[in-house]
Amino acid sequence: MASIKDLIHSAAYKAFMKKLLIYALIVFGLGIVFMLCKWPGGSVMTITGGSVLIFWMVFFIIEKLVESNS
Q1: Which are the contacts of 17, defined by CB distance < 8 A and separation ≥ 6?
Q2: Residues 6+ apart with CB under 8 A from 14
Q3: pTM of the model
Q4: What SS3 string covers 9-55?
Q5: pLDDT higher than threshold 70 for residue 1
Q6: Nearest Cα to Cα of residue 34 among 24, 44, 23
Q7: Residue 63 has what DSSP assignment?
Q8: CA separation for the pair 3, 33 (Å, rounded)
Q9: CA-CA-CA-CA torsion for 24, 28, 33, 38, nearest 10 degrees?
Q10: Between residues 33 and 5, which one has the greater pLDDT?
Q11: What pLDDT, in 10s, does the model give residues 26-67?
Q12: pLDDT at 4
């Protein structure tokens, strides 16, 4: 069974986290633009993008804690 350290150091995990960050920033940014232009869907996009960014940040902090303890 693989440990959390093996998962964090894998190339697939790093690629997934990079893509997740990019997509979340795009959705969040488009949501802000939609809200400024008063187009429908802006609030949903902003909430979704922000939630995914928080999710990413939690895993980023866990990754840094695991790396500092090893």
Answers
A1: 56, 59, 60, 63
A2: none
A3: 0.86
A4: CCHHHHHHHHHHHHHHHHHHHHHHHHHHCCCCCHHHHHHHHHHHHHH
A5: no
A6: 44
A7: H
A8: 41
A9: 130
A10: 33
A11: 999 999 999 999 999 999 999 999 999 999 999 999 999 988
A12: 84
Output the pLDDT for position 5: 86
Q: Could you give the CA distance from residue 1 to residue 14 in angstroms, rounded to a whole number?
A: 20
Query: Residue with structure tokens 């990413």?
Result: 56
The residue count of the chain comes to 70
Q: State how far the Cα of 14 lies from the Cα of 4, in Å rounded to an integer.
A: 13
CB neighbour list of residue 29: distance below 8 Å, 6 or more residues apart? 49
Q: 28 and 46 in contact (C-beta within 8 Å)? A: yes
